[in-house]
Structures are given as C-alpha cells and as structure tokens.
Design goal:
Number of domains: 1
Strand content: 15-25%
Largest sheet: 6 strands, mixed
CATH topology: Maf protein
Order of helices and strands: EHEHEHEEEHH
Strand order of the largest sheet: 2-1-3-4-5-6
Number of strands: 6
Number of helices: 5
Length: 224
Amino acid sequence: MSGPNDAPANLTLVIASSNRAKVLEFRALLSDLPVDVVSVSEVLPESLSIVEGSESFEENALLKAKTIADASMTLTLADDSGLEVDALGGRPGVRSARFAHDRATDAENNAALLTALADVEPEHRQARFRCVLALVDPWALPGLPALTAEGTCDGIIAKEARGGGGFGYDPLFIVKGTSKTMAELPDEEKNRVSHRALAVRALRPKLLAMLEGRHRDALRIAMG
C-alpha cells in the first residue's frame, strides 16, 4: 500500500510537434524531471491540422499547445522557433520552416537562405535562433494563464553547411563564441547553449511549481 511519502508517478507531457528530432531534444532537456515526454502521435490517433497564422512566436506556440492539450486532455508543451537574420530584416522568423515554400524540406530551406545571403559578407551575416515555449494544462482552473518562456541563441550564418547533427538551419548557424555550427556541436553542448535549451531553462521553475502542485493535489485526494 502506498504512503504519503512515496514518489509521485511521472506525468505525461506531450510535445506538440511532429518533428521527431525536436521531441528527442525535449526528452533530453527534461530528462531529470518527473515527466514522461511523448509525441502527439502517441496520444492522438489522428493528426490535427494547425494553421500557424500569427506573426508572433508566442501566439503560434500557445495555439499549438492549446489545440493539442484540448484534444488529448494531457499536459502539453509547444514551441515556436525560428531563425532571425539581421540582413534579411528578421526573416525568415515565424516562417522559418516554410522559407523556401510551404512544404519545404530542411535542405530546401537551407538552400533558400544561402541564396538570399549570397551577396552578404560574413561581417553582416548576424542572426539568432529564437524559441518561445507554451505549456498548457487542460485540467487547470478556468482563467489561469498558460505558462510561457523564451530563449535566444546568437550567431552568424555560414557560407556553406557544416556538420551532420541537429535539424533545420543548424548546419548553417555558427554559434556565437565558437567556430562551430549548431550541427557540429555534441548533443550535450547543444543542450546547454541552444535557444530551445535556454527557453526550457527559463520555463523550468514554472514547470516544477506546476508539478509540485499536482503532487500536493494527488496527496490530498489520496489521504481523503
């Protein structure tokens, strides 16, 4: 028979993304917390079509998190991330995954970015990765806001792709303070300096407080 001091069972946390590499990255970033990180396909039998129409990373992240949380009735974490290039006026920004066209592959987006920057010299190729996270609890009391956090990573855009790790624009993004692209960094280093890692770090105190609240509620119910 379990007692009040028993360790709480892990909560299921859905990552609102169909990108397997992104789900694995979140799983690594949250590995020390009492959550079981799963993909959308593990909690929903059919995929949902979510139109990210906002020009705001935060609004897009909130839309994705709320849609999946409401459909699965499971704690859901969504991110909206993108690459902002100064020489392109902040583009591709929220359209980073669709820079070449709406169904672009990573290779097509990388090629489109290199073409757009073909005449831009290295000293003017500054950029940053930006990530906004939104955490939605479908069982939260009405009126409680979703939790959000943001992280950025500065760098410059290389003249050619380098490295076999990561995804998206990682092979073109030279991390500030290093000579390596994000795709050349070992996973443990990337998970310290990436925009997504920094956003998770900022969200962590809020997530821990939520988990502790869930645990206290469970204990009260169990003890009658």
